[in-house]
Amino acid sequence: MSITRRAAIGASLGALAASPFLAAPAVRAQAPVELTFNYPIAVGGPIARIIDGYCDDFQKANPGIRIRQVYTGSYQDSITKALTAARGGDAPDMACLLSTDMFTLIDEDVVVPWDGLPGAETSWMGSFYPGFMENSRTGGKTWGIPFQRSTIVMYYNKEAFKAAGLNPEVAPASWAEQVEFAQKLTRRSGDTVSQWGMQIPSSGFPYWLFQALTTQNDVRLMNEAGNQTFYADPKVAEALQYWLDLAQKHKVHPTGIVEWGTTPRDFFERKVAMIWTTTGNLTNIKTNAPFEFGVAQLAAGRKPGSPTGGGNLYVFKSASEAKRAAAVKFARFLTEPERAAQWGIDTGYVATSPEAWETAKMKDYVAAFPAAAVARDQLRHAVAELSTHENQRVTKALNDGLQAVLTGRSQPQPAMAAAQAEAERILRRYRG
């Protein structure tokens, strides 16, 4: 080929390379949006595998978004890590944190409301059970989307009921019946108790279990604005006296502090016949109880009731517009009725929308295992879990008072008065 011919071809190729139509293949594909998602469990275990599966499925359906899930330990560890990261300029984009963390996250100015985010229609945000939204909305805005939610329910050993001459299909319906049943179920030889009648955990989340008793005694622990508590109400001390009397007067409940984490195991090992714990333990108990068990709504005092509990989904303020849009897509994916139904079946947490309970898979599950619907049915009596501004400090004041009473260092009325004084000192400035 002649030099002239080569030059002509080179010039042509150079011109073509400069063409905008041929430059396109050299442009890199847009990088996917990476969404950092903090989730409150330790690494490993069945729930981690479920969440991993959800993330994989979402990414397959949304190839332009990548989820980087970070398992952050307990709820307490998770809020601490999220706030520390936010203060250091490295906040997650989205996190599952306690519904009761809402006021803390707002006060720290690290989250944004879901209202107005791309794809967060009012119809979607209004599709969840109202009982769960009490801890998800304030000031006319939606700050959390219900996901890993629960109530407290009673689990009881049907074999122990039969042995005690009780109908294994009927749980106690009132505080008085609860004592009567527990007395029949307590097995004692001298000073040695081989089986307690009942057990209400008082470590980990004592305020939450106690709030079931206060709700049943027809008193609320805080106002909707989260800037006032009512710990000193006489009905609060009365509810605490009932809890104390189970151990001290009726002797059907262990004395001192009852561990949250070991309560299901105590139940499996027949050390206790009736326990209160989260519906989130349903699948665990269904899998591991070596006997037939029942699940029931909590016994009523002046009225029936339980607080809701568990985690909501939050979007952090530092997330870019693209990440906020991705967070909405992911939250909607996680809360789709079919997926929410399967989540409830796999974990025992309450599927958070009525539509999830209308799916064929959930209807079939409830037909075969009616206990699964107990927590849902109890929602009509549920109240918002204790949540205020500076929630950890305000809750600690109550927990300290509860533990002082349950360990014999104080009596209900003065302990609750002291807890209220501390809460008032903290919250006064939030009332303008």
Automatic annotation (TrEMBL):
Main subcellular localization, coarse class? Answer: periplasm
The protein's matches in InterPro entries, at most eight in alphabetical order, are given as: Bact_solute-bd_prot1, SBP, TAT_signal
Residues making up the signal peptide according to the UniProt record: 1-23
Compartment(s): Periplasm
UniProt keyword terms in alphabetical order? Signal
Please name the CDD domains in this protein's record: PBP2_UgpB
- UniProt GO cellular component terms: periplasmic space
Annotated family:
Belongs to the bacterial solute-binding protein 1 family.
Give the protein's recorded name: ABC transporter substrate-binding protein
From which organism does this entry originate? Teichococcus deserti
